[in-house]
Amino acid sequence: MGCPLKGGGGLYSRMVIAAVLLAAGEGKRFGGIAKPAIELQGVPLIKRALFALSGAGVDEVAVVLGHQAELVGSLVQDFPVTLVRNDNYREGQMSSVHAGLAQLSGKFDAVLVCLADQPLINAQDLISLIAAYKQRDGGNVVAPRVKGQRGNPIIFDWHTREQILAGEKNLGCRQFIEGNPELVRVFDTDNDHFVVDLDTEDDLQRLEKRLGMRLKLPTAATALA
Asked: How many whole angstroms separate alpha carbon 25 and alpha carbon 116?
């Protein structure tokens, strides 16, 4: 029996998707280490994030560097990504979001904004988020939520990207996400990968206990900015 779906592309049309991977943070609550350089099973977290994005079929990635940019950039120099240096990273996460969005090379159907310190996010997690975006019943933004806790990454349309760059939206603001239900659709899921990150050493210890393995922190020698 032949496939009734023309083109064999599945139930939804193929979208062209870009991603901004935020890897510029100072890690203040983590002693100032470069969190994207933390290794899980010998693989830096920033590389794990790029493997996940590739596996999910993302078409272009802008990696935003700031704190210890040389170290973090050296870990991904062999990947086909755009490296963006945000000299204003100390002004906060939205400055890095702006820097990354501005460097995307063309018009995309949707944009993911991802964090480089979410060690459990994998390709299937991103695929499920993209599917939720495709299936949404309205709005411009989809954000995951696990048992009432908002997670990351988020995904939004190209028009929202333009509004962010014009200063009309601050998607880093929790009040915006929670206070604009007409614009933001929530992807409710039991998958806690979306809410596990490494903000503090306590987070690291909890993850090590969960996984039954140690994560390797950047050494003093390699952590030089």
From this structure: 9
- Domain residues of the chain, as ranges? 16-211
42: exposed, middle or buried (Cβ count in 10 Å: 0-12, 13-18, 19+): exposed
Spatial contact of 125 and 51, defined as CB atoms under 8 Å apart: no
Is the domain defined by 16-211 classed in CATH 3.90.550.10?
A: yes
Backbone region of residue 18 per phi and psi (left: phi > 0; alpha: psi in -120 to 50; beta: other values): beta
Predicted confidence (pLDDT) at residue 53 exceeds the cutoff of 80: yes
**What is the tens place of the pLDDT at every residue in 175-209?**
666 667 788 999 999 999 999 999 999 999 999 99
pTM: 0.90
64 Rama sector, left if φ>0, alpha if ψ -120 to 50, beta otherwise: beta
